[in-house]
Amino acid sequence: MKGNLKKSLSIFGALSFAFTAGFLLSNVNVYAATNQTLELNKDYYFDLNGDGQAEKIKYTTQVNKDDNDFFNSVSLFINDKNVYTKKLTDIWAKYTVLDIDSSDKALELNLQIGGYSDVMDYSSFQRWNGASIVEFDNNKNKALNYRREYSFSNVKGNGRFNIVVDTPYSLPIGCFYANIPLKLQNNKITTTTGTYNLVGSSKKYKYKAKSNIKVYKKASKKSKVKFTVKKGDKIKMIKIKPMKNVAKRPQGKYGEEKPINAYAYVKTKSGKKGWIYLSKKKSSWGRKMLFKKVPGWG
């Protein structure tokens, strides 16, 4: 009788321990590493370096003592240890955990820091090697040097991924969101194409022509003219093709984007498609507008 009681208590204890352990594990935010943006001051668990052990990860900001709207630095903690700090006075920061190339078994971290109107002042890609954080690329790379916050898409673990960028070029079509295809190879991020699809609300916006616009068969003014968009007709932008590649994107004295020449692949209401020329001499406002109205935000 006593032996059976001890055996029952032993089994009960083992089951209780298993239940408790399972309950605790289910409440520590163990995430699959695909495209996870972390919340500030929240603990997450990822196997960052592929050793089979999940690291506890969290990032914090140090609030500016003179102005609570700003912080003075961003710090990353792994297993409760401060392993990285970026000193920069700004108002927002975010970390994203990615698995850009699953063959290397390591995860990538993307840090973005910025100010008002989602303007970005710093970004970098990082890895945890088990002892320290290694920054292997940042926004000094022209392929990543955008003025505003970006998000990720199409992260499939094959080394290629996309970033969705707010108005990556100064063009006479106003503000727009474009999908920029990139690839990671030998710890360097580069663009894979010079043509970028518009996404979200940008590909649905209807531009009303201010004057007649020639539509070409190819992205060249030397190409055959397929048809003409008449004054007052509406078109949608499908994709853009800047005439300067991303590595030569021009900037003004204060870092603002200078207007460039480009082409846009457009679609009419009747379904006809082709390329129009976007001259840098045209503008998104004033008398030099190509369209009567263009999207704009802060």
From TrEMBL:
Signal peptide feature range: 1-32
Record key words, sorted: Signal
UniProt-recorded name of the protein: SH3 domain-containing protein
Species per Swiss-Prot/TrEMBL record: Eubacterium ventriosum
